[in-house]
Amino acid sequence: MRPEQRQLLTRRVAGALYATRGIRLVSWAAGHVGRKPVFPILKYHRVNDDGDPFLPAMPTAVLDRHLSYIAHTYRVLPLDEVVKRARDGCLPRNSLAITFDDGYRDNLTHAAPILARYGLPSTIFLATGFIGTGRVFWFDRLAVGFKTTTADSVEAPWGVRFSLRNQAERLRALDEAVNHVKSLADDALQRDVGTLLAALDVPESAMPTHLMLDWTEVRALTRLGFSVGAHTVNHVLLSRVSLDRAWSEIRDSRIAIEANLGSTPTTFAYPNGTPADYTPGTVELVQKAGFACAVSTLFGVNTGETPIYELRRGTPWESDVATFSLKLAVYRAGRS
After folding, report:
1. How far apart are CA 96 and CA 107, in angstroms?
2. Three-class DSSP category at 98
3. What's the pTM value of the predicted model, to 2 decimals?
4. Neighbours of 56 (CB within 10 A)
5. Integer Cα distance of 30 and 144 in angstroms
6. Gap between the terminal Cα atoms of the chain
7. Residue 104 above 60 pLDDT?
8. What is the CB-side half-sphere exposure of residue 274 using CA atoms within 13 A?
9. Torsion-angle region of residue 98: left (phi > 0), alpha (psi -120 to 50) or beta?
10. Mind listing the pLDDT tens digit for each residue in 4-29?
């Protein structure tokens, strides 16, 4: 069966189950496969209705459908609580945790009202060096650069020439550039990003200045049921820096949250979060800094036996809520 045929079949089966409310029975059954309960952790980033392919975000209507289904089907717990309950052997079978990465302002303006409407707790992981500073992540800077440059082509510092004649070419170039520089040590990453932005010749005034939260807005999120976790200071890929630099990024992000919120964060998220983005040494540093658990972007669900400093998370890209609900049930049943 071809991938597109499999996708169509999945949507049809999901639609039929969702329409008849059979999906909730499937979800219940998935949670009772095996002797031990599992819990998924969902990972979201930006949520808005801008429809900007260069700065992609989940539309608010899609998030609303996700959360409505979750609220009626799952027991949503704060991340640190769901981990503790799993370790203590008292986790409800239908448990789930919700997280947001980075600290985008639209998490407050667009996502938080939906979560509050359904009474769902969530954790937001902050790259603290971008909170209230006006700074923009390097990948967002590249996105704006490729979107707004007047150049028809550009040569990257690693010798590749990108054609930029239309939106499709610009998006493809952006994707290739981001994937390439992610593989570099941090010093080389920053150098190549700077060189590429200079070649794109986009003025600094083109960069967004209100993309990220400030600390007053973070405090507003905590009043709406958000817990706050750390995500380093500068969103560095921890495997691409020295252990001394990794320690300062991990420790100082925790210190910044303590100083601005008056409470100690207990959870941590590895930037990018794939197995290539952190090391056993950085895992030890996260534990040394006093965090109770840490999340990756390894695919799958978690049990009480999952290493608590390498918890698994998934990004629910499906805009169709029926497909989202069926896939979530299948993942839980598969214990993957």
Report:
1. 19
2. strand
3. 0.93
4. 14
5. 42
6. 22
7. yes
8. 5
9. beta
10. 666 666 677 666 766 666 777 766 66
